[in-house]
From TrEMBL:
<keyword id="KW-0998">Cell outer membrane</keyword>
<dbReference type="Pfam" id="PF00593">
    <property type="entry name" value="TonB_dep_Rec_b-barrel"/>
</dbReference>
<keyword id="KW-0732">Signal</keyword>
<feature type="domain" description="TonB-dependent receptor-like beta-barrel">
    <location>
        <begin position="352"/>
        <end position="869"/>
    </location>
</feature>
<keyword id="KW-0675">Receptor</keyword>
<keyword id="KW-0472">Membrane</keyword>
<protein>
    <submittedName>
        <fullName>TonB-dependent receptor</fullName>
    </submittedName>
</protein>
<keyword id="KW-0798">TonB box</keyword>
<comment type="similarity">
    <text>Belongs to the TonB-dependent receptor family.</text>
</comment>
<feature type="signal peptide">
    <location>
        <begin position="1"/>
        <end position="34"/>
    </location>
</feature>
<keyword id="KW-1134">Transmembrane beta strand</keyword>
<dbReference type="GO" id="GO:0009279">
    <property type="term" value="C:cell outer membrane"/>
</dbReference>
<dbReference type="InterPro" id="IPR012910">
    <property type="entry name" value="Plug_dom"/>
</dbReference>
<feature type="domain" description="TonB-dependent receptor plug">
    <location>
        <begin position="57"/>
        <end position="174"/>
    </location>
</feature>
<keyword id="KW-0813">Transport</keyword>
<dbReference type="InterPro" id="IPR039426">
    <property type="entry name" value="TonB-dep_rcpt-like"/>
</dbReference>
<dbReference type="Pfam" id="PF07715">
    <property type="entry name" value="Plug"/>
</dbReference>
Length: 906
């Protein structure tokens, strides 16, 4: 039940242990078929995508395995980093280091480029609670940032649809994080590191172990880690937004709305000369003068979050008798994450018309101010903080049925995730601080003030800012629970072998609740839209069966079917899924395989239950106004505006479940246990895809529709134009500016993708030199098409300049193991993706990681790990600041760690 790949016994084979062979195969995606001899049989294992124990690691669908050793020697920083580095993880995701996102305190993975919600993530084969805040404000997903590595035995990835085994969500594949089942003694691991270019210093302590007390065995782990933030200003290539010729960002301005010109601020810029790191200048443009700085954005943006985490795990197993065991597992995680995406800024009448009538000057004016770090007491004063806690519990009984081949497990599992968001906000009082009391409205409904211009242009002190700013505190929670009963064994004897059956019955429920600070709706904060409590739940049950059918000594079939039933929002939805697989061995060293599966995904609860929500994006680009102005995107004043466009988002209780189909076929050749290669073709299709249309895509399409690039009468254009509401072209203030973007979930027509996976491994040993291991994995996406509405033409995502998914990825490594020394060089190659302004594609990119360790005595080791050995950073100024592909490449440069490990006990 718990494992997708079972443990193998230690048995010697031609000078190598089968454990070493399994490790080599696992590191290479487990596609090799080691040669077995009659006098050295392979023990039965449980593989990914199956609940039936079998004698082979291979199955009809390929499996990738990342071992605990891989997490260290290949330079992976955590579970997310390891998963995101795999070649099948071709999808672009907004992670903890993305910055401007709804979930910077969490990590998600996107297998096959199908999105974070199409991969099922399990812990020891069991579901865990979603992260309580929706990814991109829309979809539910499992956070990978809260899984410690101290007790990880391996991470297994099923590279294909598996709803017939695991139910909803397993459309693109399954990720199962498997923890160690037993341990003896105590292991202590210390790891410290930093970045060469500054910032990001980190440290981690892990203590794990176990013991046996008669019939009772116990295992435990504790992990404490600390990581400093990395700020944009710490990297010289993005420390100033003007490095590539763009104008500095306005930080203080008065504008005459009636003629569109800036009102001169006198000597205000000189009075603020020491602010924003002494970078503030007076800009004398064609429309007047204002104060600006090239460090306004870099001063307030972290490219790596600060994180403090504590993770605990404990497991107990009690042997009632030789055939029956009681077990219990408890995992606890506590994380505090801080980041910064922009500093505080204020605009007059932001919640109204955006401008006011100045009684003293007799003009319609708009006043804008960005506060400097010096005014607020340092940039960290405006950090956002998440305090997260997660818990997972599993208890049950497992055992064998006497005088039979049958085994069973009955378990109850529950998981919860709570996130408390502390967000700095300006108070409503800031309007009266700069504008004074409101004196009424004119005939056009424009607010009238008689403000003190001297107060507006005078820098404030940190003490004054504390009177103008506060913080909102929201609480978000998600939970899930499952009662499961399963069993497997031999049903009857057939000429080619026994017919095996596995069956499972599940009963479960899950829910979430997003509770914003009630003061948001009480008018306490400046320019804050109303926020509503959003919550929902659903219940489910499932029945499934799987057959392993030996048709011939060389031909084996697998059949599985599962019925899932969901109840939510006053309605019911049910799905029957199935899969079939064939394995043919024309020779002992050659395996031909194929599979076909149907899958489904119940609509995300956030899509269903989300109340009408108003807000604004952290940043956005108005492509239409950029086109109207004739400005290139890199220099456009309407590009990457922060804060971004307002949005209105709603859920829908009428969404249908997604339906998926996948198939694949491949070949594995393993003439010896030290050498194997494999090739697999995969094809995945999704119908009725549930999606919230991406705001950036909407704005791009809307701009093309308004300027004639696309047919304004097409279904796509009619939808995009209806979603973007703008000011009239003749508006007094901000003509053609975006007022709001309408976002809601829909069932898209379809999405389909296909590709190939290639892997290879070769291990050899040379007397006096030690052993060597060469490994390689390659994924190539052959096609990826998307159709939003049934009457729309399909979009070729591989050719689309709006698609940031990787078209190909290649991983290769060379490892050497001597008597006391071990070293590994890992190379990762990323394919071409569009550049920032979508005028071309960036060339392929290669990064190198290196590790080396020395074992002293029988129990100790010391090592060094270097990521990005050549200190490479992918630069791209075409889309403007921050001059690198955010989310696609890391801007951190070279990182290094020193690691010390020691085992106490036998």
């Amino acid at each position: 039940m718990g494992g997708l790949q079972g443990e193998k016994a230690l048995k010697k084979n031609s000078g190598y242990s089968l454990t070493a062979v399994a490790l080599a195969i696992a590191t290479l995606s487990q596609h090799a078929q080691a040669a077995d001899t009659d006098d050295n049989p392979t023990e039965k294992v449980v593989i990914t995508g199956s609940r039936i124990a079998r004698a082979s690691q291979e199955g009809p669908t390929s499996v990738t395995v990342i071992t605990a050793e891989d997490l260290e020697k290949k330079g992976y920083k955590n579970v997310f980093d390891a998963l995101n580095s795999q070649t099948q993880s071709t999808g672009f995701v907004q992670g903890a280091d993305y910055g401007n996102t709804f979930t910077p305190a969490a990590n998600a993975v996107s297998l096959r480029g199908l999105g974070a919600n199409h991969t099922l993530v399990l812990l020891n084969g069991r579901r865990v609670a979603d992260y309580p805040i929706a990814y991109e404000g829309s979809i539910n997903f499992v956070d990978l940032a809260n899984i410690p590595s101290a007790l990880i035995d391996r991470i297994e990835i099923l590279n294909g649809g598996a709803s017939a085994i695991y139910g909803s969500d397993a459309i693109a594949g399954v990720v199962n994080v498997i923890l160690k089942k037993q341990a003896s003694g105590v292991d202590v691991d210390l790891k410290v590191g930093t970045t060469q270019r500054g910032g990001g210093s980190n440290a981690r302590v892990q203590i794990s172990g176990g013991a046996e007390f008669g019939k009772l065995s116990a295992i435990f782990a504790a992990e404490i880690s600390r990581r400093d933030a990395i700020w944009s200003k710490d990297r010289d290539f993005m420390a100033d937004t003007t490095l590539h010729g763009a104008a500095p960002t306005s930080v203080l301005s008065r504008k005459n709305v009636d003629n569109g010109r800036y009102i001169d601020l006198g000597d205000s810029c000189q009075r603020m000369a020491g602010h924003f790191g002494n970078s503030l200048v007076r800009v004398n443009g064609s429309k007047g003068a204002y104060c600006a700085s090239g460090q306004a954005s870099p001063s307030f943006w972290t490219t790596q979050t600060e994180n403090h985490s504590e993770n605990l795990f404990g497991g107990l197993n009690y042997a009632v008798n030789e055939r029956t065991n009681l077990f219990g597992e408890l995992a606890l995680g506590f994380n505090t994450t801080r980041n910064n995406t922009r500093g505080p800024s204020w605009t007059s009448e932001a919640a109204g018309n955006g401008y006011f009538f100045n009684r003293d000057s007799g003009r319609n004016e708009v006043w804008s101010k960005r506060f400097s770090p010096e005014e607020i007491g340092g940039a960290t004063r405006f950090n956002r903080q998440w305090d997260d806690s997660a818990a997972s519990l599993a208890v049950g009984v497992r055992g064998d049925i006497a005088a039979s081949s049958w085994n069973y497990e009955a378990s109850y599992s529950a998981s919860s995730y709570v996130s408390k968001d502390n967000r700095p906000r300006l108070l409503k009082a800031i309007d009266s601080y700069f504008l004074g009391p409101k004196l009424g409205e004119d005939a056009d409904g424009v607010a009238i003030y008689a403000p003190d211009a001297a107060r507006f242009t005078q820098p404030i002190t940190p003490a004054q800012f504390d009177q103008l700013a506060g913080a909102s505190r929201s609480k978000d929670k998600a939970w899930t629970q499952t009662l499961s009963i399963s069993g497997s064994g031999e049903l009857l004897a057939l000429p080619a072998g026994p017919l095996k059956l596995a069956a499972v019955a599940e009963l479960g429920s899950q829910g979430f609740r997003n509770q914003p600070d009630e003061r948001i709706n009480q008018g306490v904060y400046y320019n804050s839209a109303n926020a509503q409590i959003t919550s929902g739940s659903r219940s489910r049950y499932a029945l499934g069966a799987e057959f392993n059918l030996p048709l011939h000594q060389q031909l084996n079939a697998t059949l599985a079917g599962r019925y899932d039933h969901y109840s939510f929002a006053g309605r019911k939805d049910s799905k029957l899924t199935y899969n079939a697989g064939l394995e043919y061995r024309p020779a002992k060293s050659l395996l031909l395989r194929g599979n076909y599966a149907t899958s489904f995904r119940a609509p995300d609860m956030n899509y269903i239950y989300a109340a009408k929500t108003r807000g604004y994006y952290a940043s956005s680009t108005d492509y239409y106004r950029c086109k109207l102005s004739g400005q290139p995107l890199a220099d456009c004043e309407f590009a990457n505006q922060s804060p971004g466009a307002n949005y209105i988002q709603t859920g829908s209780k009428e969404l249908r479940s997604e339906n998926g189909k996948s198939y694949g076929y491949g070949v594995v050749w393993s003439p010896a246990s030290s050498f194997d290669i494999s090739a697999d073709y995969w094809n995945i299709r999704i119908k009725d895809l549930v999606t919230n249309l991406d705001a950036d895509t909407i704005l791009r399409d809307e701009a093309d529709c308004r300027t004639g690039v696309q047919d304004a009468g097409s279904v796509l254009c009619l939808d995009a134009l209806a979603r973007v509401h703008r000011n009239p072209a003749n508006a007094v203030f901000e003509p053609n500016a975006i007022r709001e973007v309408m976002v809601n979930p829909i069932n898209a027509a379809n999405e389909r993708t296909s590709g190939v996976d290639l892997t290879g491994k070769w291990r050899w040993k040379k007397a006096g030199w030690g052993s060597f291991l060469v490994q390689a994995s390659y994924t190539r996406v052959l096609s990826h098409h998307y159709r939003q509405f049934s009457k729309d033409p399909e979009t070729d995502q591989l050719k689309s300049m709006q698609n940031s998914n990787w078209p190909s990825k290649l991983n290769g490594s060379l490892g050497w193991t001597g008597e006391s020394w071990r070293t590994t060089l890992q190379l990762d190659r990323y394919g071409r993706i569009p550049n920032g302004d979508q005028s071309g594609r960036l060339s392929p990119y290669v990064l190198a990681n290196w590790s080396a360790s020395y074992q002293f005595g029988k129990n100790g080791s010391v090592g060094v790990i270097v990521n990005n050995v050549l200190d490479k950073v992918r630069l791209d100024p075409s889309g403007g600041w921050p001059f690198y592909p955010v989310g696609s490449y890391s801007p951190h440069g070279r990182q290094a760690w020193l690691q010390l490990s020691y085992h106490f006990g036998s």
